[in-house]
User: Fold this.
Amino acid sequence: MNAKLVFVYALTPLHPGTGRGIGVIDLPVARETATGIPYLPGSSFKGVLRDQCLDKNMRKSLFGPDTDNASDHAGAVQFSDQRLLLMPVRSLAGTFAWVTSPFVLRRFAREHEGAGLNGCPPLADVAGEQTAVISTESKLVVRNDHIILEDLKLQKDKKQNANAWAETLGGLIFPDDAEWQTFLKERLCVVHDDIFSFLLETATELIARVRINDDSKTVQTGGLWYEEALPAETILSGVITAQQIKANKLKPAEALQKTAELAAGTLQFGGSATIGRGLCRLVVA
Assistant:
């Protein structure tokens, strides 16, 4: 079975919704039950790429038959959920930081190796909740080696740095853009898992939406609601795999190549497409 890594780079706020919420937020983003980490469901990811494929026979080979004939055979390509890898968080210096945690990086390393790529660099646990690991070229540091993310004051870890991880991620996410590779290296910030969990609840974008009465031009009764979105500059990652299907002559390597071609350019994922949400750039590594 062949596999490739996929990165989803949000150019505008991304709303991978789950329907009506039971909390304060009416329309929250999809989150893993155990970890609370936001993700873009594999079904949503697959559906967008399927729509991109205009060749009927190729679409059937890659993604399987249409719903009415879904039991005929499976598609050659399988899609994982696209899980949060780097969360953009406001920073007092450097405008924003791309924040991640040891747990997220370890899980990414597992997927990285599963895709047949070279191993990821090692990373020790972050020393404590008030500590952050950054690169030696970071622009996130203010006086006294502090890093200010939202309302959190963190201390730069002086015993280790994130250079190797910044170079690995930069090369994968921005393979042909040295300027953006440097930009990522200057803003990568690895925080304690508990701090990351806190930021996942506080650093998402909360958008108030209003429905206006056409006649009175005032808010309709019940016409105010709140949507949660992952901010622009969010980066998610996942895996696509391909295998030989008996009813399908398409080779796995060819199937992955065709899927990568469909992922070129800017695509729209998630809800609120008509108001510009969910415009993303994909990279297949």
